[in-house]
Amino acid sequence: MDALLISNATGWFIRLAILLPVLCGEGELAWAARGGELTLRIVDAETERPIAARMHLKTTRGKSIRPPKVPYWHDHFVVDGQITLELSRGQYVFDLECGLEYKTRQGHFRIDRDAQDEKVIVMHRFANLASEGWYAADLHVERKSKLQRSSPFLDQLLRAEGLHVLPMVTWSNVRGKSLRRLPTSEAEMASAGGRFYSLTAGRDARKGGALLFFRLQSPLDLSQAADAYPPSSQSLVMAKQQAAAHVAAEAPFWWDFPVWLASRRLDSVVIAGSHLQRDGVQDDEAWGRARNRLLFPPPHGNGRWAEVIYYRVLESGLRIPPSAASGSGVAPNPVGYNRVYVHCGSQLTYDQFWKNLAQGKVFVTNGPLLRTTVEGKIPGHVFPATAGQQRNFQIGLTLSTREPIDYLEIVKNGEPIHQVRLAELAKAGGRLPEVTFEQSGWFLVRAVTNAQQTYRYATTGPYYVEFDGRPRISRQAAEFFLDWTEQQAQQTQLADDQQQRDAMRYLRSARTFWQQRLEQATAP
């Protein structure tokens, strides 16, 4: 592993570990198997013990291989330490991954008639975020088969992907039926090794957008939920009547998003969602407000549009943390491709995870592992200040990545104020530019890779600076969501008069909220 460790006199630091995928050549893991059967054993380089991993196995013509009796999705399957593959003659290529904290292994081999062989593949860990108090989750996974929702399989998924929390979606309006009770209780979801899964998450998806529900003691009755009625906001209100509920907007560009925001009931916003995929991007906003494709061209456009809308949320004075969801089982992504890391300290508990997620102690990623501290604080912290004071902040950065980083960026009040190349950062002794505030605002750090076919990046949750107890509220942000609400109201046309009145009730409430926000503005 090539690593760069730079310290400076102030005590702030940047530690960069840049790790590129290892292509197995003739001298390492490329082999000509002597038969039609190949046994692979996957081991951790440090412990030399078997570990679970995800395998993408294809012929050289690009056809994905689906071994029997192994839970499979799209183009990959989980190997729980060892697997015997019975394969036809020919050449094969593979990727092997263990989440984001191990190097990717790539290789190729040949299968000849009646041959048998056994090989060991060693996986090298380059980061251990749990040892730093960071724990990863994927907030949208759907698997319909009983096998893929069984305890052994979910435990394998957690270990193979380096996840610690996996709330499986098991009920939704999409399935056209309502559950009378949840499949498991909260007390039954603990996995081995300090990891957690549950079968209690739900999803309300329709043309106005999709909401994700967690920690409900009883499911919502979504059996009658259609595209336009009842309003999705009704599901949000019903869910938040349950004390421990956490509700996430599945994307910030959904048409109903400003109405959800105005309810003040959202707990997080998925900014890295199922549109961002391992091998490409779903390049549309589906049920949402379409982006300007000249300003936000592919392949980064969809992801950047989600970020820009999220910045408008922060600019409007709403402190809602970002989160992430792969959509695995609906989208082609592996479990955990998009993930949110939550800082919970030395010991993870399920309650603490959701509490700290709601407090914004997070970073979101589908690639780089981006950790920051500011005055010893992690994202989500509010720094107080008084009028006439100037606050200067130096950011401590730890960045590990398997892919080259194109640039680092510091975003202040919705605008990038510093873009830093890693070479420039090294020349500066690892010291990021200071961030200065004389009025209330917020800031975060993001890192973008040079991936060509998709948008692969990481962003911290925001830090907040608050002068005299007054948050920043931007007039432009309030107008942005007010105009959006007006557009939604104009296009809401239901044939049934009572249904129209029900829908307009939520829209009128949202209009009032954003008008009040506009009147309360403290910044342009």
Please name the CATH architecture of the largest domain: Alpha-Beta Barrel
Question: For the CA atoms, what is the radius of gyration?
Answer: 24 Å
- Taken as a percent bin, the fraction of beta residues is 25-35%
**Tally of helical segments:** 8
The first-to-last residue Cα distance is 47 Å
The CATH superfamily of the largest domain is identified as Metal-dependent hydrolases
Oligomer: single chain
Number of domains: 3
- As a percent range, the share of helical residues equals 10-25%
Shape, please?
globular
* CATH class identity of the largest domain: Alpha Beta
Content-based structural category = alpha+beta
Q: What is the number of E strands?
A: 33
What's the main sheet like?
A: 9 strands, mixed
Structure in a nutshell:
This protein has 524 residues and is of the alpha+beta class. Strands 13, 22, 23, 25, 28, 29, 31, 32 and 33 form a 9-stranded mixed beta sheet that branches. Strands 3, 4, 6, 7, 8, 10 and 11 form a 7-stranded mixed beta sheet that branches. A 6-stranded mixed beta sheet has the order 14-15-16-17-18-21, sandwiched between helices.
Characterization of the model:
Mean pLDDT is 89; it is low at 1-14 and 20-34. A hairpin with a 2-residue loop joins strand 28 (405-412) and strand 29 (415-420). The two termini are 47 Å apart. This protein has three domains: 20-123, Immunoglobulin-like; 129-366, Metal-dependent hydrolases (TIM Barrel, Alpha-Beta Barrel); 476-519. Helices cover 18% and strands 34% of the residues. Strands 13, 22, 23, 25, 28, 29, 31, 32 and 33 form a nine-stranded mixed sheet that branches. Strands 3, 4, 6, 7, 8, 10 and 11 form a seven-stranded mixed sheet that branches. It is built from eight helices and 33 strands. It is globular, with a radius of gyration of 24 Å. It is α+β, with helices and mostly antiparallel strands and 524 residues long.
